[in-house]
């Protein structure tokens, strides 16, 4: 992704009034001493130890053995991440289970969650996800990185308070527009308004503006979004039915009381299950929070550790999949801002440095195409065609695989569209 992806992830979304304004920050991870790190080629195995020993000069001493951490190459990390992300092979789990496993799907716009699940699940159809939205089994709300995500109902009540610090940090960006505003009173008034009748963001800021006429109107609605767990009510987010954003509180929409935030240690385990092996800074990039090292350290005895090629310490679950780096990775058509690409400080495990910034240009996000597990191009839909733009020349065999996957994606998500498939230039929307 381009520099400033966090801003890019949110920039330009005001056009749909989707309550998305982001400022990702993360602490800098500690760089460990590489003196004893073993370069283990493509070896991705869990917990494997390379032992070394030596004898001092003079009298004989017992051989001292110390463990060198296994180094995971970018390709090893790629295959591990694809496996966790359900992108190495399609899963038979339900859409609801997949949303939970992935700890939410990026949902700045309506369609990305549908494309994300079509790339990951066997037999997925848009109607199954729309039904979950209609049943209130999943909801759309601002959580991780202060951006809109699709979460299960259970996670809506627990992930949101976990991510609250990221939303409060965003609120500080708008503090000048909130001079003289009592934020506690604003939260109380906004809750009363949206629980009485769901409001669009314009309606909400107009209503709050009657109490603070000198405040910046947009800052008022952003404050409500950051202070309250606002969910976008249906039909927003439903396939083929979506309308403008209207919000109420998660508690009101789900008819459940507020829940405690997921413990940081528990969230570390969930993050690693979906995105590991990963560093402390990786997780901070994913969620927009800082100071997570203590949570990792408290779990150290339950985790295995590796190093990446730069010497950064990576944590992982002992029994999580770390496939052979030679495992085939079929092409995948992902939506813009898919979390598989956004959830690590070092994104080269999927985004080669040579293609840095090519999924975001001039305030326009592009949908990434993966082949052999890595970014190789972008794609887009016109009224009558799926257009594929490779960044590099594809072999005849790979072109065939990409075309086959494109046809499969269209059959799953746009079965009656009659789209052609062609290679060409993807135009900005």
| Major sheet attributes | 5 strands, antiparallel
Strand order of the largest sheet: 3-5-4-6-7
The total of helices stands at: 16
Mind telling me the C-alpha Rg?
Answer: 23 Å
pLDDT < 50 runs, ≥5 residues: 1-65
Oligomer: single chain
The proportion of residues in beta strands is 5-15%
Structural class: alpha+beta
Q: State the separation between the terminal residues, measured CA to CA.
A: 18 Å
Give the overall average pLDDT: 87
Helix content range: 25-40%
Shape summary = globular
Number of strands: 16
Describe the structure.
- The two termini are 18 Å apart.
- Helix 7 (164-173) runs antiparallel to helix 10.
- The model is unreliable at 1-65 (pLDDT under 50).
- Helices cover 34% and strands 14% of the residues.
- With 429 residues, it is an alpha+beta fold.
- It has a 5-stranded antiparallel beta sheet.
- The chain is globular.
- The chain has helices at 5-10, 74-84, 95-101, 112-118, 126-134, 153-162, 164-173, 183-196, 201-209, 217-227, 250-254, 264-275, 280-287, 293-298, 339-342, 396-413, and strands spanning 50-52, 66-68, 105-106, 138-142, 148-152, 230-232, 247-249, 304-307, 313-316, 332-333, 360-361, 364-365, 367-371, 374-381, 385-390, 420-423.
- It is built from 16 helices and 16 strands.
Topology:
Elements: H1 5-10, E1 50-52, E2 66-68, H2 74-84, H3 95-101, E3 105-106, H4 112-118, H5 126-134, E4 138-142, E5 148-152, H6 153-162, H7 164-173, H8 183-196, H9 201-209, H10 217-227, E6 230-232, E7 247-249, H11 250-254, H12 264-275, H13 280-287, H14 293-298, E8 304-307, E9 313-316, E10 332-333, H15 339-342, E11 360-361, E12 364-365, E13 367-371, E14 374-381, E15 385-390, H16 396-413, E16 420-423
Parallel strand pairs: 15-16
Antiparallel strand pairs: 1-2, 3-5, 4-5, 4-6, 6-7, 8-9, 10-13, 11-12, 13-14, 14-15
Helix pairs in contact: 7-10, 8-10, 9-10
């Amino acid at each position: 992704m381009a520099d400033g992806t966090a801003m890019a992830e949110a920039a330009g979304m005001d056009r749909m009034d989707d309550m998305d304004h982001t400022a990702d920050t993360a602490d800098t991870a500690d760089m460990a001493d590489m003196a004893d790190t073993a370069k283990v080629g493509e070896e991705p195995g869990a917990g494997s130890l390379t032992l070394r020993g030596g004898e001092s000069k003079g009298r004989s001493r017992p051989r001292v053995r110390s463990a060198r951490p296994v180094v995971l190459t970018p390709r090893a990390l790629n295959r591990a991440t694809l496996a966790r992300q359900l992108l190495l092979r399609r899963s038979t789990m339900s859409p609801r289970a997949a949303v939970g496993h992935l700890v939410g799907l990026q949902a700045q716009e309506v369609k990305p969650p549908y494309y994300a699940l079509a790339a990951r699940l066997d037999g997925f159809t848009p109607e199954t996800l729309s039904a979950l939205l209609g049943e209130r089994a999943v909801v759309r709300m601002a959580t991780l990185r202060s951006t809109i995500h699709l979460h299960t109902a259970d996670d809506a009540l627990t992930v949101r308070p976990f991510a609250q610090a990221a939303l409060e940090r965003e609120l500080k960006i708008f503090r000048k527009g909130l001079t003289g505003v009592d934020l506690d009173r604003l939260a109380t008034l906004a809750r009363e308004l949206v629980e009485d009748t769901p409001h669009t963001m314009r309606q909400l800021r107009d209503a709050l503006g009657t109490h603070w006429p000198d405040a910046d109107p947009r800052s008022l609605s952003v404050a409500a979004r950051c202070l309250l767990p606002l969910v976008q009510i249906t039909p927003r987010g439903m396939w083929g039915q979506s309308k403008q954003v209207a919000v109420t509180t998660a508690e009101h929409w789900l008819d459940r009381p507020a829940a405690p935030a997921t413990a940081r240690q528990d969230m570390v385990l969930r993050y690693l299950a979906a995105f590991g092996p990963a560093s402390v800074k990786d997780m901070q990039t994913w969620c927009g929070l800082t100071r997570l090292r203590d949570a990792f350290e408290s779990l150290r005895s339950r985790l295995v550790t590796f190093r990446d090629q730069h010497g950064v310490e990576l944590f992982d679950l002992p029994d999580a999949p770390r496939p052979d780096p030679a495992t085939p990775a079929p092409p995948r058509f992902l939506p813009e801002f898919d979390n598989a690409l956004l959830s690590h400080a070092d994104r080269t495990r999927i985004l080669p440095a040579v293609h840095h910034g090519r999924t975001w240009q001039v305030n326009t996000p592009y949908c990434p195409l993966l082949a052999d597990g890595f970014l190789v191009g972008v794609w887009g839909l016109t009224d009558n065609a799926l257009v594929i733009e490779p960044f590099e020349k594809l072999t005849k065999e790979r072109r065939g695989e990409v075309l086959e996957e494109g046809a499969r994606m269209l059959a799953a998500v746009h079965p009656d569209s009659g789209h052609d498939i062609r290679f060409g230039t993807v135009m900005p929307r």
